[in-house]
Amino acid sequence: MVTFEQYLKGILKQVDDSYTLLQNLRDKIGDLDIMYRELAKINGLFVALSNKLETNKQELADYQYILSPIRKYLENHEFFREMNTMSLLYSDDSLRLKNLRLSILDSMRENNLLEHIQSILRE
Fold first, then answer.
1. What is the fold of 4-122?
2. Measured between alpha carbons, how far is 2 from 106 in angstroms, rounded to an integer?
3. Which residue among 11, 91, 94, 95 is least enclosed by CB atoms within 10 Å?
4. ∠ CA(89), CA(105), CA(61), 5° rounding?
């Protein structure tokens, strides 16, 4: 049976893998679809993790510090509308793809969210 800690680390590993994939994109045609898919995955994982941390405060007390940055990320960053607009008009514009990708990556570094994720994974 999987412990809460293993569950948490498994989710955070998936988020970190998606972050790395976004970081390594080369801003070419087709990357917008990859960004959309990975961002949807990250957001879904953050929602699941947020719910799990909220409902299991006792078992995951050592990891409650990551809950606030996750919530702030989910509340303050919505890239899907911009991606939908780009897909119709600018999906092959490498500079717009790069700016969007960098904005997504920067949003994950806000409030030390990525640092917290990597710190938990190193434990």
1. Four Helix Bundle (Hemerythrin (Met), subunit A) (1.20.120)
2. 32
3. 95
4. 135
Q: Render the burial of 79-104: b for 16+ CB within 10 Å, e for the rest.
A: beeebeebeeeeeeeeebbeebbeeb
Structure tokens at 19: 């972050």
Helix axes 94-109, 4-23, angle to 10 degrees: 150
pLDDT tens profile 65-110: 999 999 999 999 999 999 999 888 888 899 999 999 999 999 999 9
Q: What is the 8-class DSSP label of residue 76? A: H
DSSP 78: -
> Which three-class secondary structure state does DSSP give residue 63?
helix
**Which residue type is seen at 98?**
K
Both tokens assigned to 68: 């606030």
